[in-house]
């Protein structure tokens, strides 16, 4: 008997419906709300109106928005791309083919940061960076007077916190990728006289390229969404020093109660995520 | 055959949808405020600051039992919301949006009540208060403006009132050679006192003012408006119905903050100032430890040090004082205070409005309304509270009550929340040295124009 496509459709219905209700509809609604004056309170809450591109016009004229985009990029590049991806790769490389006990000990230390929930990480980091916190006590042993880290170096503090929290993920991705490179290929290169740097750049990295891109995308998207960590550590401040887009969005939606404006910002965040992902795929010539 | 298959697909689709919708709706069956054991259940929601919450304690001290005994058909359920001041507003608004989650009585900050009324979340109480003899002459008249919506209807019953001033540690001021009782005549004397303390008492924070935007409305009201309303300018022009986003008084207020935090460096450290709990840190830790000399804060704050407060101080009246905050140059009336407070409202989506009003009347009668403010260290909105034994005998009450004479109220407008949020962020930026007072005025103007439109603002 010949199979008919309609039968397949029957069995797909539940999953399509689930996707539609819990995934597609909210996204469409978000896009629609971005073009309204939706507010949590005040007369706008009663009179929902389509206001066209007003939210976007306001956003691009808003100096706070421009600052937030800039802060987001700084946070993304230093804490995700440079911090987690590069550090994770170095850690994985250093641990490659090392003694299993050594690998386990290092692994547990790094993974401790990853398994800790974001809010707990935030509190640990506040304890670490605060005026009479761990870091100031440590530098105190060397006779250095305490520094208000969260006030004087707020961005550095949240970047370090995010690196501490996220590096283990990258490390594990790279570890499994590196373990899958057949030993004889690298050995052959070594016998042919390639330096370890050349082996790394011409053999190891190209062979784990797919993992690098996937990891970069995941880490980027995850970092773009970091809210709890920053909000708990600095509240986006002092002033606007650590106000990334998610914090800015939260402030607009839940502090100023401007939901329409908040959703418009969230769309921009989504676009940045998509652009970043496309950029990675393009630059590494990987097809997904 | 084809039609049959299509039918099957359609049925499957419908079945899945049905399954989903029932799955979604089943979660709602136990929420809302229907009947419990044949009784009407009235849910009352308010902001709780944690386990030391005096309002919860007050409700549980026999008040609810008494009401339930008198009204056997009503059951009162208290549902405090544990949240910061800013989060509380959004949480209750989200609750009030749906009849399934709306409480029957809700505590509303008078700064947001007009906004919520305009949004249609609150039930007008005009008919109820018309039939309530207490309302007409037992409630302080000018507090009624705070609960009246833009449409002129009453949307809440004022429950607490307050004033603001300078709390100070008498011992520290005396040590620094400053006069006690402290009564600064103008802004310069406040700043000068702070500088003296800085010189004479190293390790002591001279003057705490709330500037961290995580402290929410406190930044606008306790700090900026206390300054601004002591100049010749205001935040809102009642005649033109426009926001005054640039004025000499506003610039001077910003300069005061800049002077305190950046020039004199007599404010708290940024670690304390930007903390969302800055007020609690000041009153529960720094003041009792003798590490803070002065703080501009609300009249309720001193109750922290009472016997049943969070950080009791023995013989508190001998050690701590409460001074009026002066006007800029000492101009009439010499001192200034902002007054606000909380009100009880009934959400429009409440399912038990009648029972809710019954409880609200009971809650706000002379005895209970006064009992609550006495427990919390607030001022009463009822003018007959002074007849209740012990009300005026409380430490600092006479001083705080006297300040009501010079009290100003926040602009009665549903756009206030938007402007206040802008001010919070700007005050924080000034205090943390990221924005000069001049740029701050410019930024405020730009931001408010963007949020509300060019026709809603004016420059003086």
Itemize the secondary structure elements and their pairings.
The complex is a heterodimer of chains A (288) and B (460).
Chain A: H1 5-33, H2 43-46, H3 54-61, H4 63-95, H5 100-115, H6 118-129, H7 134-141, H8 149-152, H9 154-179, H10 183-191, H11 196-207, H12 209-224, H13 228-233, H14 245-255, H15 259-283
Helix pairs in contact in A: 4-9, 4-12, 5-9, 6-9, 9-12, 10-11, 12-15, 14-15
Chain B: H1 2-25, E1 35-36, E2 39-45, E3 47-48, H2 54-70, E4 74-78, E5 81-82, H3 85-96, E6 105-109, H4 113-118, H5 126-130, H6 133-138, E7 157-158, E8 164-169, H7 170-175, H8 187-200, E9 205-208, H9 217-228, E10 236-237, E11 242-246, H10 248-263, H11 270-273, H12 278-286, E12 292-298, H13 316-319, E13 320-323, E14 325-326, E15 335-339, E16 342-345, H14 353-363, H15 366-376, H16 397-403, E17 407-409, H17 416-431, H18 437-452, E18 457-459
Parallel strand pairs in B: 2-4, 2-6, 3-5, 9-12, 11-18, 15-17
Antiparallel strand pairs in B: 1-2, 6-16, 7-16, 8-12, 8-13, 10-11, 14-15
Helix pairs in contact in B: 2-15, 9-17, 10-18, 17-18
Question: What would you note in describing this structure?
Answer:
The complex is a heterodimer of chains A (288) and B (460). Helices cover 76% and strands 0% of the residues of chain A. Chain A has 15 helices and no strands. The radius of gyration of chain A is 24 Å and the shape is globular. Chain A starts with a helix and ends in a 5-residue tail after the last helix. In chain B, 43% of the residues lie in helices and 15% in strands. Classes of the chains: A mainly alpha (288), B alpha/beta (460). Chains A and B meet through helix 1, helix 2 and helix 14 of A and helix 1, helix 3, helix 4, helix 17 and helix 18 of B.
